[in-house]
Amino acid sequence: MSAATAATVRWAQFVRERFPPAAYLPMASLFVAGNGLLAAALHPAAARSLGLRLALAFALALSYFLRLRLFDEIKDLEVDRRLNPDRPLARGLLTLREVGFAIGALTVFELALTATLGRAVLATHTLAVGYSYLMFREFFVGRWLRPHLTTYAVTHTVSSGLLGLSVASVVTGLGLPRLGPALWALALANWALFNVFEFARKSFAASEERDGADSYTRRFGPRGAVALTGSQLVLALAVLAWIAPHSAGAVNAVVLAAEGLLAAAVLLVATAFARNPSVKRARRYRAAAGLFIVFFFTVLSIGAARALP
User: 60 in helix, strand or coil?
Assistant: First the structure.
């Protein structure tokens, strides 16, 4: 087997383990559809060649999400060597040099892609790229930031809002000042949605907790962890309600009602976990929070698509 073939096999194994297509492809597709189609509904004259623009935005988002995954693999390496020695970098499947090269290549790809769409698009995504590198460096206050679990999370999930603005910029060709308040507000909703996922994925039943691994349930108890998630569900819905009258009909009463029912379903599952934090209910809670993001963007995409001229 040649060196190139061996490297391809190792990277394919990494993707299967740490960036599974069955999870990331639908999530990236729906994230792009929700943000991109709302942008197109708000700026129909600017959103020419919509299918092509959405495809480019999907490639951009997938690259961005993969790059964030690679950042985390490097940042978590020392902890993984102690707690998760079977993970790819910890067991030597890939080297730091290989991962660093991939990060550089993905960054160049993203900037080159957006540059072909104009200076406004490049400037918008450069902001998202720059913020992601600050995250990688933990804003140069990692020693202080790491012990503050919630602060660490909410500063990192800002990247989802910036990526949403990049998607809107790719679809419309417009820069940040011209995207308008509704899309800026959607960036805030993106942030809240990814907080929902983050707070839930690190919430566990007592028997699932591991020594040396932090969690929201360990910090705040099941009720406190669920309260954090609930606050972000409410924020996402409140932002969407504010967007509604400024959305060119994309976020109508049906969309708001559907999103509200989805959030209520998550809250029911979360409340059941808070009252009786069993392993089964913890797993349901984590799954419900993850599915909420998928369904949120599905509903938003349908509403925005129906509002297109």
Answer: helix
Residue 9 lies in a domain: no
Q: Is 175 helix (H, G, I), strand (E, B) or coil?
A: coil
CATH code for the domain of 286: 1.10.600
Q: pLDDT category, 48, cuts 50, 70, 90?
A: confident
- Looking at residue 244, the DSSP 8-state letter turns out to be G
Task: Note the pLDDT of residue 258.
Answer: 98
Between CA 217 and CA 224 the distance in angstroms is 7
**pTM here?**
0.96
Residue for token pair 């060119």: 248
Give the structural domain span for 54.
21-307
In contact, 60 and 169? CB cutoff 8 Å: no
Q: Distance between CA 210 and CA 212 in Å, rounded?
A: 6
Rounded CA separation 96/28 (Å): 26
Cα(51)–Cα(299) distance, rounded to whole angstroms?
19
**CB-count burial class (<10 Å; 0-12, 13-18, 19+) for 257:** exposed
Q: Which residues, 6 or more positions from 59, have their beta carbon under 8 angstroms from its beta carbon?
A: 113
Q: How many domains does the chain have?
A: 1
